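User: Predict the full complex structure for these chains.
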Amino acid sequence: MRLISLLLIIFMSFSAHANIGDMPEEQQLAMQYIKAYTDHDFRSLRHFYNRDSVFFDKTANVKYTGTRHIIEFLTRAHEGVLEYRLNIEHMFNNGSIVVIIGSYRLRGPGDQYGKPGRIIDIAVPGVTTLKFDMGTRRIIEHMDLMDYQTMADQLESQ
Amino acid sequence: MRLISLLLIIFMSFSAHANIGDMPEEQQLAMQYIKAYTDHDFRSLRHFYNRDSVFFDKTANVKYTGTRHIIEFLTRAHEGVLEYRLNIEHMFNNGSIVVIIGSYRLRGPGDQYGKPGRIIDIAVPGVTTLKFDMGTRRIIEHMDLMDYQTMADQLESQ
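Assistant: Here is the predicted structure of the two-chain assembly.
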Protein backbone atom coordinates (compact mmCIF):
# COMPACT_ATOMS: atom_id res chain seq x y z
CA MET A 1 0.00 0.00 0.00
CA ARG A 2 2.66 2.44 1.12
CA LEU A 3 4.82 1.46 -1.86
CA ILE A 4 2.05 2.06 -4.36
CA SER A 5 1.31 5.47 -2.82
CA LEU A 6 5.01 6.31 -2.96
CA LEU A 7 5.30 5.29 -6.61
CA LEU A 8 2.21 7.34 -7.34
CA ILE A 9 3.65 10.41 -5.62
CA ILE A 10 7.01 10.06 -7.37
CA PHE A 11 5.34 9.62 -10.75
CA MET A 12 2.99 12.54 -10.21
CA SER A 13 5.76 14.81 -8.85
CA PHE A 14 7.91 14.01 -11.88
CA SER A 15 5.19 14.64 -14.41
CA ALA A 16 4.21 17.85 -12.62
CA HIS A 17 7.77 19.18 -12.78
CA ALA A 18 8.36 18.05 -16.35
CA ASN A 19 5.44 20.07 -17.68
CA ILE A 20 5.48 23.15 -15.49
CA GLY A 21 5.53 25.45 -18.56
CA ASP A 22 2.39 23.77 -19.95
CA MET A 23 0.42 24.29 -16.74
CA PRO A 24 -2.41 26.78 -16.57
CA GLU A 25 -1.14 30.14 -15.26
CA GLU A 26 -3.15 29.70 -12.05
CA GLN A 27 -1.42 26.39 -11.26
CA GLN A 28 2.00 27.91 -11.98
CA LEU A 29 1.21 30.71 -9.53
CA ALA A 30 0.06 28.11 -6.99
CA MET A 31 3.38 26.25 -7.34
CA GLN A 32 5.32 29.50 -6.75
CA TYR A 33 3.21 30.21 -3.68
CA ILE A 34 3.58 26.68 -2.28
CA LYS A 35 7.35 26.88 -2.79
CA ALA A 36 7.56 30.12 -0.77
CA TYR A 37 5.19 28.63 1.81
CA THR A 38 7.07 25.37 2.36
CA ASP A 39 10.52 27.08 2.15
CA HIS A 40 9.44 29.48 4.95
CA ASP A 41 10.40 32.23 2.50
CA PHE A 42 8.44 34.94 4.29
CA ARG A 43 9.90 37.70 2.08
CA SER A 44 8.35 36.15 -1.04
CA LEU A 45 5.27 35.06 0.87
CA ARG A 46 4.40 38.64 1.87
CA HIS A 47 3.92 39.50 -1.81
CA PHE A 48 1.17 36.89 -2.07
CA TYR A 49 -0.99 38.38 0.70
CA ASN A 50 -2.74 41.65 1.29
CA ARG A 51 -4.87 42.97 4.16
CA ASP A 52 -7.90 40.99 2.97
CA SER A 53 -6.17 37.63 2.39
CA VAL A 54 -7.62 34.81 4.46
CA PHE A 55 -5.73 31.77 5.77
CA PHE A 56 -8.30 29.20 6.85
CA ASP A 57 -7.69 25.72 8.27
CA LYS A 58 -11.24 24.43 7.88
CA THR A 59 -10.54 21.14 9.69
CA ALA A 60 -9.06 22.89 12.74
CA ASN A 61 -11.47 25.87 12.41
CA VAL A 62 -8.60 28.35 12.60
CA LYS A 63 -8.72 31.56 10.55
CA TYR A 64 -6.31 34.47 10.11
CA THR A 65 -6.95 37.57 8.01
CA GLY A 66 -4.37 39.97 6.55
CA THR A 67 -0.65 39.69 5.78
CA ARG A 68 0.55 40.49 9.31
CA HIS A 69 -1.61 37.96 11.16
CA ILE A 70 -0.96 35.22 8.61
CA ILE A 71 2.83 35.75 8.62
CA GLU A 72 2.86 35.86 12.45
CA PHE A 73 0.99 32.57 12.59
CA LEU A 74 3.23 30.88 10.01
CA THR A 75 6.39 32.13 11.74
CA ARG A 76 5.16 30.52 14.96
CA ALA A 77 3.96 27.32 13.29
CA HIS A 78 7.11 26.78 11.21
CA GLU A 79 9.58 27.61 14.00
CA GLY A 80 12.61 25.33 13.94
CA VAL A 81 11.17 23.10 11.21
CA LEU A 82 14.02 21.35 9.37
CA GLU A 83 12.14 20.18 6.34
CA TYR A 84 8.69 21.00 5.01
CA ARG A 85 7.48 19.79 1.67
CA LEU A 86 4.22 19.21 -0.16
CA ASN A 87 4.08 16.04 -2.23
CA ILE A 88 1.43 16.74 -4.83
CA GLU A 89 -0.71 13.78 -5.85
CA HIS A 90 -3.24 15.67 -7.94
CA MET A 91 -3.70 19.34 -8.78
CA PHE A 92 -6.47 20.99 -10.73
CA ASN A 93 -8.01 24.41 -11.14
CA ASN A 94 -11.22 25.99 -12.25
CA GLY A 95 -10.40 29.59 -13.13
CA SER A 96 -8.63 31.21 -10.20
CA ILE A 97 -9.37 28.39 -7.74
CA VAL A 98 -6.55 25.85 -7.51
CA VAL A 99 -7.03 22.57 -5.62
CA ILE A 100 -3.98 20.57 -4.49
CA ILE A 101 -4.37 17.05 -3.11
CA GLY A 102 -1.28 15.57 -1.52
CA SER A 103 0.57 15.21 1.73
CA TYR A 104 2.66 17.61 3.79
CA ARG A 105 5.95 16.09 4.93
CA LEU A 106 7.26 17.74 8.07
CA ARG A 107 10.52 17.03 9.88
CA GLY A 108 11.39 19.12 12.90
CA PRO A 109 11.41 19.53 16.67
CA GLY A 110 8.51 17.81 18.40
CA ASP A 111 7.98 20.55 20.98
CA GLN A 112 4.79 21.85 19.35
CA TYR A 113 3.50 18.30 18.96
CA GLY A 114 3.82 16.95 22.47
CA LYS A 115 7.25 15.41 21.80
CA PRO A 116 9.73 17.82 23.44
CA GLY A 117 13.40 17.14 22.76
CA ARG A 118 12.61 14.76 19.89
CA ILE A 119 12.83 15.18 16.14
CA ILE A 120 9.58 14.14 14.51
CA ASP A 121 9.03 13.09 10.90
CA ILE A 122 5.44 12.99 9.65
CA ALA A 123 3.50 13.01 6.38
CA VAL A 124 0.03 14.49 6.75
CA PRO A 125 -2.49 13.91 3.94
CA GLY A 126 -4.36 17.06 3.08
CA VAL A 127 -6.11 19.22 0.53
CA THR A 128 -5.05 22.82 -0.01
CA THR A 129 -7.35 25.13 -1.96
CA LEU A 130 -6.01 28.47 -3.15
CA LYS A 131 -8.21 31.24 -4.51
CA PHE A 132 -6.23 33.93 -6.31
CA ASP A 133 -6.96 37.41 -7.53
CA MET A 134 -5.26 36.90 -10.89
CA GLY A 135 -5.11 40.68 -11.51
CA THR A 136 -2.90 41.35 -8.49
CA ARG A 137 -1.60 37.75 -8.19
CA ARG A 138 -2.52 37.79 -4.48
CA ILE A 139 -4.18 35.12 -2.37
CA ILE A 140 -7.85 35.77 -1.65
CA GLU A 141 -8.11 32.58 0.41
CA HIS A 142 -5.79 29.74 1.38
CA MET A 143 -7.94 26.91 2.74
CA ASP A 144 -6.54 23.71 4.25
CA LEU A 145 -8.24 20.39 5.01
CA MET A 146 -5.82 18.26 7.01
CA ASP A 147 -5.95 14.64 8.17
CA TYR A 148 -5.03 15.29 11.81
CA GLN A 149 -5.94 11.74 12.85
CA THR A 150 -3.21 10.29 10.61
CA MET A 151 -0.86 12.92 12.01
CA ALA A 152 -1.72 11.90 15.58
CA ASP A 153 -1.25 8.20 14.72
CA GLN A 154 2.19 8.93 13.28
CA LEU A 155 3.20 11.04 16.26
CA GLU A 156 2.15 8.33 18.66
CA SER A 157 4.74 5.94 17.24
CA GLN A 158 7.61 8.46 17.43
CA MET B 1 -0.65 5.02 -14.16
CA ARG B 2 -4.32 4.27 -14.66
CA LEU B 3 -3.74 0.71 -13.43
CA ILE B 4 -2.03 1.84 -10.24
CA SER B 5 -4.83 4.32 -9.53
CA LEU B 6 -7.37 1.60 -10.14
CA LEU B 7 -5.62 -0.83 -7.81
CA LEU B 8 -5.44 1.93 -5.22
CA ILE B 9 -9.15 2.66 -5.52
CA ILE B 10 -10.10 -1.01 -5.32
CA PHE B 11 -7.87 -1.56 -2.30
CA MET B 12 -9.15 1.54 -0.53
CA SER B 13 -12.79 0.77 -1.32
CA PHE B 14 -12.37 -2.73 0.03
CA SER B 15 -10.68 -1.67 3.25
CA ALA B 16 -13.27 1.07 3.73
CA HIS B 17 -16.14 -1.40 3.43
CA ALA B 18 -14.46 -4.08 5.51
CA ASN B 19 -14.13 -1.78 8.50
CA ILE B 20 -17.26 0.31 8.34
CA GLY B 21 -18.15 -0.55 11.94
CA ASP B 22 -14.76 0.68 13.17
CA MET B 23 -15.13 4.04 11.50
CA PRO B 24 -15.69 7.18 13.51
CA GLU B 25 -19.43 7.93 13.77
CA GLU B 26 -19.01 11.04 11.59
CA GLN B 27 -17.53 8.98 8.74
CA GLN B 28 -20.32 6.39 9.04
CA LEU B 29 -22.87 9.18 8.75
CA ALA B 30 -20.98 10.56 5.74
CA MET B 31 -21.13 7.13 4.05
CA GLN B 32 -24.91 6.95 4.63
CA TYR B 33 -25.32 10.43 3.19
CA ILE B 34 -23.13 9.69 0.14
CA LYS B 35 -25.10 6.50 -0.50
CA ALA B 36 -28.41 8.41 -0.54
CA TYR B 37 -26.78 11.14 -2.63
CA THR B 38 -25.33 8.85 -5.33
CA ASP B 39 -28.41 6.58 -5.34
CA HIS B 40 -30.62 9.66 -6.03
CA ASP B 41 -32.56 8.51 -2.96
CA PHE B 42 -34.24 11.86 -2.40
CA ARG B 43 -36.51 10.46 0.32
CA SER B 44 -33.53 9.60 2.53
CA LEU B 45 -31.63 12.66 1.38
CA ARG B 46 -34.34 15.02 2.67
CA HIS B 47 -33.65 13.81 6.21
CA PHE B 48 -30.06 15.03 5.93
CA TYR B 49 -30.96 18.64 5.12
CA ASN B 50 -32.83 21.41 6.87
CA ARG B 51 -33.66 24.98 5.88
CA ASP B 52 -30.14 26.16 6.77
CA SER B 53 -28.20 23.39 4.98
CA VAL B 54 -25.82 24.69 2.32
CA PHE B 55 -24.79 22.87 -0.85
CA PHE B 56 -21.74 24.64 -2.25
CA ASP B 57 -19.73 23.75 -5.33
CA LYS B 58 -16.73 25.96 -4.61
CA THR B 59 -15.02 25.26 -7.95
CA ALA B 60 -18.13 26.21 -9.96
CA ASN B 61 -19.13 28.91 -7.45
CA VAL B 62 -22.68 27.55 -7.21
CA LYS B 63 -24.52 27.62 -3.88
CA TYR B 64 -27.97 26.41 -2.78
CA THR B 65 -29.47 26.86 0.67
CA GLY B 66 -32.27 24.85 2.28
CA THR B 67 -33.76 21.41 1.61
CA ARG B 68 -36.09 22.52 -1.17
CA HIS B 69 -33.51 24.36 -3.28
CA ILE B 70 -30.90 21.64 -2.85
CA ILE B 71 -33.31 18.81 -3.75
CA GLU B 72 -34.58 20.77 -6.77
CA PHE B 73 -31.03 21.27 -7.99
CA LEU B 74 -30.06 17.61 -7.47
CA THR B 75 -33.24 16.39 -9.19
CA ARG B 76 -32.30 18.50 -12.22
CA ALA B 77 -28.62 17.54 -12.14
CA HIS B 78 -29.20 13.80 -11.72
CA GLU B 79 -32.01 13.53 -14.28
CA GLY B 80 -31.77 10.37 -16.34
CA VAL B 81 -28.40 9.38 -14.83
CA LEU B 82 -27.94 5.62 -15.13
CA GLU B 83 -25.07 5.20 -12.72
CA TYR B 84 -23.52 7.52 -10.18
CA ARG B 85 -20.90 6.38 -7.74
CA LEU B 86 -18.18 7.85 -5.57
CA ASN B 87 -14.93 5.88 -5.51
CA ILE B 88 -13.32 6.87 -2.23
CA GLU B 89 -9.53 7.11 -2.26
CA HIS B 90 -9.08 8.67 1.14
CA MET B 91 -11.49 9.78 3.84
CA PHE B 92 -10.77 11.53 7.12
CA ASN B 93 -12.57 13.65 9.66
CA ASN B 94 -11.80 16.15 12.34
CA GLY B 95 -14.82 16.21 14.63
CA SER B 96 -17.94 16.83 12.57
CA ILE B 97 -16.06 17.77 9.37
CA VAL B 98 -15.58 14.81 7.03
CA VAL B 99 -13.30 15.09 3.99
CA ILE B 100 -13.64 12.60 1.13
CA ILE B 101 -11.06 12.47 -1.66
CA GLY B 102 -11.99 10.35 -4.65
CA SER B 103 -13.67 10.42 -8.00
CA TYR B 104 -17.30 10.60 -9.08
CA ARG B 105 -18.17 8.08 -11.78
CA LEU B 106 -21.15 9.16 -13.84
CA ARG B 107 -22.84 7.28 -16.67
CA GLY B 108 -25.88 8.79 -18.29
CA PRO B 109 -27.35 10.85 -21.10
CA GLY B 110 -24.99 13.48 -22.48
CA ASP B 111 -27.70 16.12 -23.00
CA GLN B 112 -26.57 18.24 -20.04
CA TYR B 113 -22.95 17.92 -21.14
CA GLY B 114 -23.11 19.03 -24.76
CA LYS B 115 -23.47 15.46 -26.05
CA PRO B 116 -27.17 15.12 -26.90
CA GLY B 117 -28.37 11.63 -27.82
CA ARG B 118 -25.19 10.00 -26.51
CA ILE B 119 -24.48 8.03 -23.34
CA ILE B 120 -21.45 9.46 -21.58
CA ASP B 121 -19.22 7.70 -19.05
CA ILE B 122 -16.90 9.89 -17.00
CA ALA B 123 -14.90 9.78 -13.77
CA VAL B 124 -14.37 13.19 -12.24
CA PRO B 125 -11.74 13.58 -9.50
CA GLY B 126 -12.99 15.64 -6.62
CA VAL B 127 -13.02 16.42 -2.94
CA THR B 128 -16.27 16.47 -0.98
CA THR B 129 -16.29 18.05 2.46
CA LEU B 130 -19.29 17.46 4.71
CA LYS B 131 -19.93 19.41 7.88
CA PHE B 132 -22.54 17.79 10.10
CA ASP B 133 -24.57 18.86 13.06
CA MET B 134 -24.02 15.64 15.01
CA GLY B 135 -26.91 16.45 17.36
CA THR B 136 -29.53 16.45 14.61
CA ARG B 137 -27.43 14.39 12.12
CA ARG B 138 -28.12 17.02 9.45
CA ILE B 139 -25.77 18.55 6.89
CA ILE B 140 -24.61 22.05 7.79
CA GLU B 141 -22.56 22.29 4.59
CA HIS B 142 -21.81 20.00 1.65
CA MET B 143 -18.85 21.51 -0.23
CA ASP B 144 -17.50 20.12 -3.51
CA LEU B 145 -14.21 20.78 -5.28
CA MET B 146 -14.39 19.18 -8.73
CA ASP B 147 -11.81 18.71 -11.47
CA TYR B 148 -13.90 20.06 -14.35
CA GLN B 149 -10.94 20.16 -16.72
CA THR B 150 -10.51 16.37 -16.49
CA MET B 151 -14.27 16.07 -16.99
CA ALA B 152 -14.10 18.26 -20.12
CA ASP B 153 -11.14 16.24 -21.46
CA GLN B 154 -13.08 13.00 -20.98
CA LEU B 155 -16.22 14.41 -22.59
CA GLU B 156 -14.24 15.59 -25.60
CA SER B 157 -13.25 12.04 -26.48
CA GLN B 158 -16.82 10.66 -26.23
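The radius of gyration of chain B is 16 Å.
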